[in-house]
């Protein structure tokens, strides 16, 4: 969709899809009157500048100043934006003037006058200087624009904003600099705001379903080969076979509610190691999220939603200026949601608010303050899962229904709350150096009272273990960096030098109640009410549990240089991290058959770890849009486990080789990418087979594969995303052996032990494919109506470390529609209806299994909303 510039009844639009994200300034009604243009000339593009024209130069110095430019032949509007970026020149022209026109190529060192004359050669257009603006007109028209008053600064697409349609061309993910994706030598994928609007994901996992290299439905899995065995923010997604970490505005988050989609402008996926810029990260990559912040143009939107399972939702998102000049702006996003789920007695309830304010202190200094609060008394997840006999394998009475709840309605509490404060500060000292800083404080708490599944007694009955958990955490993080540019002859440098720290404190308590026979339930005909919780560590209660208190401080220093010589871009970076686990106290309370209770308290020694990570890559941009690249990068994750002798483990260390292609198809807004990679990770941990209370270093995991993707605004009313991923993740070096699991034997898991070496990592699909399209037909009879749909395929996954059984593959279909009321009735401008249906056929499928349970995928979900923008 085109962003809009407010005028007297006419939209100011950019023609090229690359420019649709240009933030349009407000043009007052007096401007339109002063221009005296017809309605056909009311659409204006203004590109910032400082230069002169052929007719009335501002100054001799400005006219004669020379610039080195290299702009290939392309759409005229794109060439003008490139010239503006290269020279700092401000251009004003009506979009009708550039429609269908192509520019001539320019290359060399020349003045703005010479560059404009060459670009416009053969287009039938000329230019003249009007005040401080270069105005384009038809050579024969002699149309003269009056003074242009612009309320705001027009710039190209924001590197942290919502993107344009399904495509984003610029990003800060992976480099912390505003860089075109086609100049970064590694895999980065952007989920734009429009894609989220069309697909209606309720959380980040659902938003990631169409992203290459990401398995977003691995709920409830525990990956032995995954790099991150810490809190993964309630998510079950994997990147290139490794569990992932989430970052908000560049800082790692441990929030249990991270990534409320109603609060996000975009989601950025960096596949591959990213430790150089972000510290502790898995070799699979990171998930970056950008919170909504005040916009330069007013924004007002509200919506009400509905859906199956009793869903009702309301959201609001408003942004406007506070001061008359607009140097102080605010934004407020809020959500209220209540609904059931496909499983009885499992509900989702949430209220949240995200206020923010931006103060442009002066032309060089800006400060943004954000705060958020999310209260989720029911998080809608059913982590208990179901037995494999009755889901993965045919049961005596068929499959267990998705609606089946195997817990107790009176012992069923899953919820969390999170509070956060953040500020982002920037100051530009001069054209060479600027300073950027991000700070966040967040506090999160999660509670869980459920019954987890234990042994399956027979074909119909299974034993449950009552469980209660309480996790609270507090995180303080800051990232401060100097960013700058300089040239060494024909070579340009875009450098970053920075430091960040993160202080994380967590307290985790848990208790199991081994009640016995009263906790057994029939999986096909559950009867509730037979269980009464008994917790207290007394001889009357058969409970076992403990508490852990953990504190970590991490600090890192990093540097990066993006070197560019003509069409060649080279990326070099390095980082050193120091990690201190300053406090690790564990208290274990357990059963004793003699006196009924025993208590064990232990205080673990603190540990210090450090690691150096680095990366290097290069990418070459051919003039016809192709950009091949190669990169090498490393990662690390500090580990908190201890072996049976009380010794700490080495950090998880990973490295990746990646080779790929990026192709921006000329004359289109279509970005195609392909990447092949090889990742290895050392020192992953498993439970010590000789002492199950401790961990053991299992060895090395290798993941290799390739990804292809497309993000495309094919034409004005047709957008698409598509991807294919192949992942081969294996245990390549290990001394660990595991039993062959026999899911038919109910309690029998005593098969012969075999080595895990060479086996596939469990719950990692080798093949994934997806495609999603949205189309609004231009026909008058269907004016305002749009349709969309998608296909998702996930290959089979092995369910244990020795690959003795597997969960089958599945194919899902999603469809949707939307209607713009204003397209047919002008009085209803801004009113829009939306419908999104996932898993259209209501397919029964399994996302993953382990040796104790399987997890069912979501059935048919129907979401709709009505939104109004004003």
UniProtKB/TrEMBL annotation:
Q: Which GO terms describe its cellular component?
A: cell outer membrane
What's a BP term from Gene Ontology annotated to this protein?
A: siderophore transport
User: SMART domains of this UniProt entry?
Assistant: STN (SM00965)
Keywords assigned by UniProt? Cell outer membrane, Ion transport, Iron, Iron transport, Membrane, Receptor, Signal, TonB box, Transmembrane, Transmembrane beta strand, Transport
Q: What is the designated name of this protein?
A: TonB-dependent siderophore receptor
Query: In the UniProt record, does the keyword Transport occur?
Result: yes
**What is a single molecular function from GO for this protein?**
siderophore uptake transmembrane transporter activity
- Source organism: Acetobacter syzygii
Where does the protein end up? Cell outer membrane
Transmembrane domains' residue ranges: none
Check the UniProt entry and state the signal peptide residues, or none. Answer: none
| NCBIfam families per UniProt | TonB-siderophor (TIGR01783)
Keyword Transmembrane helix assigned: no
Q: Which family does it belong to?
A: Belongs to the TonB-dependent receptor family.
Q: Which InterPro entries match?
A: Beta-barrel_TonB, Beta-barrel_TonB_sf, Plug_dom, Plug_dom_sf, Secretin/TonB_short_N, TonB-dep_rcpt-like, TonB_sidphr_rcpt
Which intervals hold domain Secretin/TonB short N-terminal? 89-139
Annotated membrane topology: Multi-pass membrane protein
